[in-house]
């Protein structure tokens, strides 16, 4: 599996396995086990997913050495702030049955995320985390964080797929060598991604599916992807993207699919809606 070097020198697999929305813990544990057996070495979870413990059990049973697995997790909004982040991080370590994380992320740019970032810097400098980063940070919040601290995020995990390519944000990230990490790389099936005529026609040239074409497009744009599936055949299929390359013409066709706006989560609109209705942030 191709590795990508983060801005602090740490190497990270460019393709991983995500467990968002796998609420059945037995199913989650099996999915992670299947992914590790297939060859995945990046596993992405989060405190708010409620399945860190299942991920930890699967890793412990896998027989794969801990140092060969790149584990990523996230601190959720209700744990924003220095002290709460410290406590949440320890709970995450306990759930995952590990004494360090490879990547720890601020899940949303809300609440006292400056306090969370200070805690994460301390944990990083203490050797408890190999790299730290953020999720869903748009250019204004990302620039603010960069200008306020000496430690620049290594990763920004955001919605990226052929229909929302985030070029302006990626340009800012490139300036600081912040690696983009795509959640929902298949757009959760929106815009008929799995049967889209452009992606299907490109895939037919290589004997690949639209999903594999999408993952290859992300690969060739130096974007980390964490597709989720609970089906072994699909887990294996998503992993099989090293045996073909997209041409410049293929890439150009996919680039034209960009709608210039998110399909799943508009961070600013989401925050405003929750504020107006006085409700707790959820995902």
Automatic annotation (TrEMBL):
Database matches in SUPFAM superfamilies: NAD(P)-linked oxidoreductase
GO molecular function, one term: oxidoreductase activity, acting on the CH-OH group of donors, NAD or NADP as acceptor
Pfam families: Aldo_ket_red
Entry-linked InterPro entries: AKR, Aldo/ket_reductase_CS, NAD(P)_OxRdtase_dom_sf, NADP_OxRdtase_dom
Domain NADP-dependent oxidoreductase: 32-258
Active-site residues, as the UniProt record annotates them: 49 (proton donor)
Gene3D superfamilies per record: NADP-dependent oxidoreductase domain
Entry keywords, A to Z: NADP, Oxidoreductase
Site features described as Lowers pKa of active site Tyr, chain residue numbers: 74
Domain of life: Bacteria
Chain sites annotated for binding substrate: 107
Entry-linked PANTHER family: 2,5-DIKETO-D-GLUCONIC ACID REDUCTASE, NADP-DEPENDENT OXIDOREDUCTASE DOMAIN-CONTAINING PROTEIN
Protein family: Belongs to the aldo/keto reductase family.
Protein name stated in the entry: Aldehyde reductase
Natural source organism: Lacticaseibacillus pantheris DSM 15945 = JCM 12539 = NBRC 106106
């Amino acid at each position: 599996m191709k590795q990508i070097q983060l801005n602090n020198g740490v190497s990270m697999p460019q393709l991983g396995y995500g467990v968002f929305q796998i609420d059945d813990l037995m199913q989650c544990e099996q999915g992670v086990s299947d992914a590790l057996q297939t060859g995945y070495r990046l596993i992405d979870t989060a405190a708010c997913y409620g399945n860190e413990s299942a991920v930890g059990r699967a890793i412990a049973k896998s027989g794969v050495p801990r140092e060969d697995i790149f584990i990523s997790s996230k601190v959720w909004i209700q744990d924003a702030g220095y002290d709460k982040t410290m406590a949440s991080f320890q709970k995450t370590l306990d759930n995952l049955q590990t004494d360090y994380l490879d990547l720890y992320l601020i899940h949303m740019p809300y609440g006292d995320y400056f306090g969370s970032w200070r805690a994460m810097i301390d944990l990083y400098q203490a050797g408890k985390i190999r790299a730290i980063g953020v999720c869903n940070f748009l250019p204004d919040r990302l620039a603010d964080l960069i200008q306020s601290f000496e430690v620049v995020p290594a990763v920004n995990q955001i919605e990226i797929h052929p229909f929302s390519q985030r070029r302006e944000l990626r340009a800012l990230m490139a300036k600081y060598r912040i690696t983009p990490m795509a959640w929902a790389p298949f757009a959760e099936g929106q815009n008929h991604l799995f049967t889209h005529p452009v992606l299907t026609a490109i895939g037919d040239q290589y004997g690949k599916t639209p999903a594999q074409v999408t993952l290859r497009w992300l690969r060739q744009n130096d974007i980390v992807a964490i597709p989720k599936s609970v089906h072994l055949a699909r887990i294996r299929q998503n992993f099989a993207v090293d045996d073909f390359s997209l041409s410049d013409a293929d890439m150009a066709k996919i680039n034209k699919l960009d709608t210039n706006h998110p399909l799943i989560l508009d961070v600013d609109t989401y925050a405003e809606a929750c504020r107006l209705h006085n409700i707790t942030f959820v995902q």
